[in-house]
């Protein structure tokens, strides 16, 4: 009996690491073992992969790519590609040998024998993890009958109405063949034993869709040009010289083919990982794709080797491994050919053998058992009782799980996505940022300490004071005294009523010792720079005040941004007050720091007084306020009206000083956008000023009981849908519609009223209660 090994890699990234779960079971049985561990942070892995991929895609060989640009004008050699591949393999195995991952490695070696037939499913949604050559893991290479397949964490089994066939029915699509040879593919397919192959040569989209709807296919094959978009989330196949289709454009036809018994899809074309990821949503049992551009010869030989092994009785996984390893003979011409083929598996199904697909193996007809019609009448009281009981149980379990923080990462992901959908706002003209750029640093005096020298700061403050700013904030650490040659600078820092400096409070939890303030600055003119950082290193909260420990070198009770805002508002006649219940009051604005049980922050200890950070939305968060460089100021390019009566923030944006934080917003590359520390301070200043003076609302959440009632309400809706829409198809459409309504309601509240309400728990409650009720009510209907 074969073994099934599932490696589940949870939400994470190469910068923070990944949680990992290992499950081992016999085929068709429940897991006999489950163990958890972690993979540590290792940003080197994606860099090595990108280096290999860049070289591989620049190699000049006849292949099946289309629309894949050359990365540079250089012409790397096959030796360069092999060196990059060896480096990636080395780094991958170092990573998988990490001490915190060792429990999984040791349990694997303990429970699995080298002679075992092993299917390994790598379950993850992380595209960078899916792209890695996992077959090169030194543990896997000890097992000659093991093969790795990719799998999405979300899957389901589709009920199929397939009838036995006298021969295996294969639909072979021979698409746009410009510049490539796919005739060999068709000859290999035509020679298949016990197979009836229908060829569609450069078909139109209508012809292909008709075939998917009208015939029962067991294997779908495509040869020709294909590509994946830049985000690697959407795949496209080129049917003929003028037509191309994405998988979503074939969704209905492919879904019908799956219902009729489609077991396997083979895409003998380039860059197919995007195709596989989209196919996963259609729940096709198995898909074989090429993860990178594939040369003609490699594609043809793989198909030949795979079908030979599969047709003679090998399992699909063993057949893929055998075919993949036989490609090693071509690697002197085509480096890394053995890396290209990959299986994408639906875990809800078990791979079939070739002989099980046709009646020559088993001539006995299997008559499907017709569904028994459900009775229409059920007792209303029984149904409502079931709805109420199930919704209460579901809500209680969800809120308990949520309280311990298990839904936190999902909730924050949903929150970030909704934030990014808000309309763009205008910059805050009450703030001026003077940035010390990378170019500004070397232009200062040789005895500079840090990013800003005493000489430059002295000249800068002298020039600013002539333009009469309302307040000046220095967001640069100075844990040292002013040099004796600049007595005026020391006097300005000590006696200036507009000047506020920064320090850092020590933190025993993170072992940060803190950073001392400038010795010349009095305590009342200090603010701390500490921020509240979430477990994924994203700044979503605004830390206002805290109680520094006695041993901290920085004893400032308020944040730098708060100090600057209070001084600005003082001249507007607004002073900070506290209500009897501890809420903060700035003019007409009254707010309380968020509690740890609201807003999706279960399980996070609160650090001082904090609120949610309502970023002023821009495509580039650095555009929060007007800015000018240090050298532009010192060379007289600063207009007086840009300073007068403004909050002036001085800080560094030089990347060499690493003062950057992650935000909920995404950059143009789809990665989490980073923001310089001085710009982050400006965002926080703008949040408080806009709320106190302009009425721009702060982000807020419901109390715990409001959230409980909200989640319970959606659980009841899911139960009622299951009770009265008893057909699974109708129920699925209705639940999908309610999901969209829930999402739209949450988004509207966030955009219009800055209210963050629980989306993820409500969505889970809706779906879970509907599923639970349909399994409970159906037997009652049939009673």
Total helical segments: 20
Widest sheet, order of strands: 3-2-1-4-5-14-13-12-8-6-7
Q: For the residues shown, what is the average pLDDT?
A: 86
- Overall, the morphology is globular
- Which assembly state applies to the chains in this document? single chain
Number of strands: 27
Radius of gyration, in angstroms, nearest whole number:
31 Å
Structure overview:
With 783 residues, this protein is of the alpha/beta class. The chain has four domains: 3-151; 168-357, Rossmann fold (3-Layer(aba) Sandwich), CATH 3.40.50.1460; 380-406 and 702-782, no CATH class; 419-694, no CATH class. Helices cover 35% and strands 17% of the residues. The chain is built from 20 helices and 27 strands. It has an eleven-stranded mixed beta sheet, sandwiched between helices. Strand 20 (576-578) and strand 21 (584-586) form a beta hairpin. The longest helix is centred in the last third of the chain and has 26 residues, at 728-753. It is globular. The two termini are 40 Å apart.
